[in-house]
């Protein structure tokens, strides 16, 4: 089953493209990390996925339906925005009552248990909660909808390391128990590395690479050896990033077959190194003088 499918998805604001020719096929049951620099198009993609925006061109379906197309579709998706939207003048209990009235699948038992486990006072107004507590309240509201898909737009970006860890721990506990699909946007690759099994790298409004983390990690390598041109690398090696000193060349490549060249040192990448290689490739493509200097 596909949780999200996009074909040539494009969103423009006047002449500016916030998202361009995005084609994706995200399988269900995954925790998807959506990573890229600020302004890459991550929030645009997620807002299209939950129906807050409509495409300029192309198509997007979520759980087999058009995003935001009626109550049934809305009930399938839980959304936590970057600012962990809560209502400052409402108490924690007010939030749960509001959730119960507006969500047909609402699970009051789950909501109450999470609030108790978090140590939140139901009488406390949201405006007096810490940033981490507000994020946890927003996650509780999304989880208690019993959604098939959770969409999280940089929900931990403003949190301190301990609050981030607790938020991600709660998220993973929920997904492990309920097998909920998750799309989690972040520019903190270290957080994604701990929780995600599918990766999408988005830069300059375009998808640069997407796939299961295990497959991506098993097909990307760092090659180091005597200085050479990219054309002299083993057949089938797609160069993602390269650099050179006077005598040595270093390449990050993608190859579906093992690299068998005794003149090269072959190393696996960390997920962060893989992401940074694609980000660097995008920067070089937009600034040719950087590529020429390599």
UniProtKB/TrEMBL annotation:
Highest taxon of source: Bacteria
Gene Ontology molecular functions: ATP binding
CDD domains, alphabetized: ABC_DR_subfamily_A
Signal peptide range in chain numbering: none
Keywords, in A-Z order: ATP-binding, Nucleotide-binding, Transport
Domain ABC transporter stretches: 4-229
Family designation: Belongs to the ABC transporter superfamily.
Record-linked PANTHER family: ABC TRANSPORTER, ATP-BINDING PROTEIN
Protein name: ABC transporter ATP-binding protein
Organism annotation: Asanoa siamensis
């Amino acid at each position: 089953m596909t949780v999200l499918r996009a074909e040539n998805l494009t969103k423009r604001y006047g002449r500016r493209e916030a998202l361009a020719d995005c084609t994706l096929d995200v399988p269900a049951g995954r925790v998807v990390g959506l990573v890229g620099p600020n302004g890459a198009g991550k929030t645009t993609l997620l807002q299209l996925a939950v129906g807050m925006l409509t495409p300029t061109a192309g198509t997007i379906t979520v759980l087999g339906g058009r995003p935001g197309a009626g109550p049934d579709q809305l009930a399938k998706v839980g959304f936590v925005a970057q600012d962990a939207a809560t209502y400052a003048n409402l108490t924690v209990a007010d939030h749960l009552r509001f959730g119960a009235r507006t969500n047909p699948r609402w699970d009051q038992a789950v909501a109450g248990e999470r609030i108790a486990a978090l140590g939140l006072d139901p009488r406390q107004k949201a405006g007096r909660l810490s940033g981490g507590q507000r994020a946890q309240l927003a996650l509780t509201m999304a989880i208690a909808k019993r959604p098939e898909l959770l969409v999280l737009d940089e929900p931990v970006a403003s949190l301190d390391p301990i609050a981030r860890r607790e938020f991600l721990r709660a998220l993973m506990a929920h997904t492990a128990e309920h097998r909920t699909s998750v799309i989690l946007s972040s520019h903190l690759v270290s957080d994604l590395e701990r929780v995600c099994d599918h990766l999408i790298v988005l830069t300059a409004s375009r998808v640069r690479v997407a796939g299961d983390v295990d497959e991506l990690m098993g097909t990307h390598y760092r090659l180091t050896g005597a200085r050479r041109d990219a054309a002299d690398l083993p057949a089938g090696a797609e160069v993602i990033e390269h650099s050179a000193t006077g005598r040595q060349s270093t390449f990050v490549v993608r190859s579906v077959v093992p690299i068998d060249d005794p003149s090269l040192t072959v190393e696996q990448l960390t997920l962060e190194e893989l992401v940074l290689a694609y980000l660097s490739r995008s920067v070089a493509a937009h600034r040719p003088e950087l590529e020429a200097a390599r």
